[in-house]
Hints:
Layout: H1 24-31, H2 39-51, H3 55-75, E1 81-85, H4 95-102, E2 107-112, H5 115-119, E3 132-137, H6 143-153, E4 163-167, H7 179-188, E5 195-201, H8 207-219, H9 229-233, E6 239-241, E7 247-248, H10 271-274, E8 276-283
Parallel strand pairs: 1-2, 1-4, 2-3, 4-5
Antiparallel strand pairs: 5-8, 6-8, 7-8
Helix pairs in contact: 1-2, 2-8, 3-4, 6-7
Amino acid sequence: xxxxxxxxxxxxxxxxxxxxxxxxxxxxxxxxxxxxxxxxxxxxxxxxxxxxxxxxxxxxxxxxxxxxxxxxxxxxxxxxxxxxxxxxxxxxxxxxxxxxxxxxxxxxxxxxxxxxxxxxxxxxxxxxxxxxxxxxxxxxxxxxxxxxxxxxxxxxxxxxxxxxxxxxxxxxxxxxxxxxxxxxxxxxxxxxxxxxxxxxxxxxxxxxxxxxxxxxxxxxxxxxxxxxxxxxxxxxxxxxxxxxxxxxxxxxxxxxxxxxxxxxxxxxxxxxxxxxxxxxxxxx
Length: 284
């Protein structure tokens, strides 16, 4: 019998969880070793892994970067508000848990338009007593809708700096959707002193496998576009990149640690296996 994850009880209307077709968020959960996925997702994920065997490593590298970036923003940049757009299926530790472990008063707004993500939102709402979290429905490609949802909810004070997290999501925004205008539209509403944190898949190190992976995702109805380092760097135009700049994700301020969801220092991971650029930059 197939295992089926239980959706949140706080959802008031029926949603189509797409149990009959692969879904990128549940596939990513599978890459991470999670349980919020169905047989169709696991079979699709295995097809991807046959083309690019390092995909589970990439997913762990991405999660490890997110943890380091959030800790850096809280501890060194004094950022206590985060806007996580395209947050995906919850996976512990979630962004708010990392931020609130550093500063309990941190506030985090998760934004996603995917009913699958919203159906499992309860675990994103377990804030510390001093802080707050919210899970809002809005589309990454419509910045005005994102900020309308934020203003209605009131979780974040947009007059103060915010950490904008766009982790492993922009490669699902094609050039036809003008991803640079999308990012500019999000940044435009944030106060000076805010930060942008991005991770983005690339085919720079393994072009042919990534062409095959993109073809698979597109065949399942998920627009996908990996980008070169130069193309990812454009997302940071007009911002001040913090050291070490835009690098392969496992090389961004690495820590010599290991464990569930983590990877060791850069000497333990090949760039081709990571295939993910990452950077953090300050809005002036």
